Amino acid sequence: MKRPSDASRRDGVPDRGTLGNGMPYLRAGAGGRLVFLPGIAGGARPATALDRRVQGGQISLLARHHEVWWIGHRPGLPPDFDMASVAGEYADTLRHLFGDPVDVIGVSTGGSIALQLAADHPDVVNRLVVVSSAYRLGPSGRLAQQRTGALLRAGRPQRAAAELMSRLGRNAVERNAMTVAGLMLGPIVVGNDDPDLLVLLDAEDGFDLHGRLPEITAPTLVLGGDSDGFYPESLFRETALRIQSARLVLYRGVGHMTTQGNHRLAADVRAFLED
Asked: What are the Basic and acidic residues biased-composition ranges (predicted)?
């Protein structure tokens, strides 16, 4: 494990750094251990100051009551990697880091990885929380990610970011605003010639865990907004229904991004993990 010069340390382990397999991580908080798998933009490129603020913001509320490990994918993913391959690398990492099963929360694409992880590697997942994600993308979300990939391959990161961000809002007004933000931010959102992002876009395009959901034995909480631009409400409901021990919390009038920032989310996660 590499030692970043600017990281504080607990028990001889830096609170931020890179694991031996190249996965970037951030640790914060105290309490029961909770592994956080970020969305598709939580990549492995060198973290900027903005990246660090976003990562810290993603886990800050959860870290009030848990020791949260934000873990991103490693750089240099093979072009043919599918979601099972990504989940397999996370499984190896969690076994090496912790030994025992841990609670896992996955957000957006991280939720897809977390579902695959729980289905393929039940020995590493104690309890599972899936946020703004389901067993497959909805039609609108899948089309947006396909277009994002095509635009990235065409060397148009501004348009790619606009396409991806257009589904983050709750309604047409918000989605138009997010499209404009994507045009302005461009490579800040999707990187600049980031092959790993393309690998993950392709992996999620082929991801469909519908038939495997009954195999998930970990107690599961599914959290989603009924105005999510990537997943219709029906997919959240079916995901929770087909997992043996799952609960669904649906936020009304909430979209993909605002689910993750919803003031109720941390409390709902805590109540589930402490039940």
From this structure: 1-14
